[in-house]
Design a protein that fits this description.
The protein has 10 helices and 21 strands. Strands 5, 8, 9, 10, 11, 20 and 21 form a 7-stranded mixed β-sheet that branches. By secondary structure, the protein is α/β, with parallel strands linked by helices. Strand 6 and strand 7 form a beta hairpin. The radius of gyration is 23 Å and the shape is globular. Helices cover 26% and strands 27% of the residues. Helix 7 crosses helix 8.
Length: 398
């Protein structure tokens, strides 16, 4: 029978440790095998002692984001998933489609610890002043490998939070807060004056709505259900359109005409929505044209696809002139392009407005073991708007 981390605890080197650390921890690993099988398993892994510039964070809260799905499940056929492992170390296994295996070749045989971000308490530190000053502080982290009980990182990579901040409140400090801010940054840098955002009732969408209200930016929120539209309006959103309504395209045109939006960030990806957005932008621009051009408006219209809630093909019905673009967009390359100073400015705003502008809500809290429960997987793998899971690695097995 596996022992708990506390039962396996030992004294670390007093020169770098300020607390007793366990030798091993629980960690969730995703493995692609040579025969094309995915194994998602809870395993025992070593706790890495910190070097002089590092700290050890006891992870107490980490979200399951849509961006974590690829690392966890590697395009597995969900219908083939079944329970495996033991009661002490549960696991799932499933078959990866043969056509997907070539793209996963670099992952074969190399266990991956997923989890893009999270928060916890610094429980041990190296002997540098920068590391020592973080002892006992609640910090937020990004950079992967968060689905485990302890994470050893460089002290400079921690976002230090105000005293009294709960890890659960800081779990989503990076992906959604930085992405929502980045959308406004892109808008300004590329010369647009207003935004359209799809799947706008998500945690990220609600953050973007609050940012745009505070910063005086016109935002068209596209949602998929009436209750989502009502929620955003209650939060102060002026322009909300529901794609499930029969007059969606008419209302979308009205909102885009009023705001002048020529930039959209699309979390859906598949289907015709990107094309509908571009068509509405072109119709709004053409309505004010004083001369005819067979190439349409000369104003560039752009849709960035940053999510994949719909995995079907993206269908473009080209009825919006020649000045347009559709492309993928990711946060990490954006941060690399804008540089350290801008990235730090965005991070500072997150820390200052963590419980207001960038507050996140969760509908479910599970342990690491709960991540390999088939019933939970069936829900969180859908990445449904309004249903978000928080993982607490410090919880016992479900």
């Amino acid at each position: 029978m596996a022992r708990s981390p506390d039962e396996r605890a030992h004294k670390g080197d007093a020169s770098i440790m300020s607390t007793t650390l366990p030798q091993t921890q629980l960690q969730l690993q995703s493995l692609v095998t040579e025969d094309g099988e995915l194994r998602l398993a809870l395993v025992e892994a070593p706790v890495i002692a910190p070097s002089a510039e590092q700290v050890v964070v006891r992870v107490e809260a980490t979200p399951i984001n849509p961006s974590d799905m690829g690392g966890l499940f590697a395009t597995v056929n969900a219908a083939t998933l079944e329970s495996a492992g033991t009661p002490e170390f549960p696991a799932l296994k499933g078959q990866i489609p043969a056509a997907a295996l070539p793209a996963l070749r670099a992952r074969v045989g190399d266990p991956l610890t997923a989890g893009n971000e999270g928060a916890g308490v610094v429980v041990a530190a190296g002997d540098s002043p920068e590391a020592q000053r973080l002892l006992g502080r609640t910090v937020a982290l990004t950079g992967g490998e968060m689905y485990q009980q302890y994470r050893t990182v460089n002290a400079q990579d921690c976002l230090v939070l105000e005293e009294g901040t709960r890890p659960a409140d800081a779990a989503s400090c990076f992906v959604n807060p930085l992405t929502s801010q980045a959308m406004v940054e892109v808008m300004r840098a590329e010369g647009h004056t207003a935004l359209v955002h799809t799947a706008a009732a998500s945690n990220l969408g609600q953050m973007l709505n609050r940012i745009c209200i505070a910063d005086g930016v016109d935002l068209v929120n596209v949602v998929r259900r009436p209750e989502q539209a009502a929620m955003l309006r209650e939060q102060g959103a002026k322009w909300v359109v529901d794609s499930s309504e029969p007059d969606f395209e008419e209302k979308l045109l009205e909102a885009i005409t009023a705001t002048g939006a020529t930039l959209a960030f699309d979390a859906i990806g598949g289907g015709t929505l990107a094309s509908q957005l571009l068509s509405a932008m072109e119709r709004a621009l053409s309505s004010n044209a004083t001369t005819f051009s067979r190439y349409g408006s000369a104003t560039h219209k752009q849709v960035y696809i940053y999510g994949g809630l719909d995995r079907s093909p993206t269908v473009l019905n080209r009825s919006y002139g020649a000045a347009w673009g559709v492309s993928g967009w990711l946060l990490t390359p954006f941060l690399q392009r804008v540089g350290v100073e801008t990235a730090q400015r965005l991070r500072d705003r997150v820390a200052a407005e963590l419980l207001t502008t960038f507050a996140s809500t969760y509908t479910d809290e599970i342990s690491l073991a709960g991540m390999v429960d088939l019933a939970n997987v069936a829900v969180y793998s859908k990445s449904s708007t309004g249903r978000k899971f928080l993982v607490n690695p410090s919880l016992g097995r479900d």
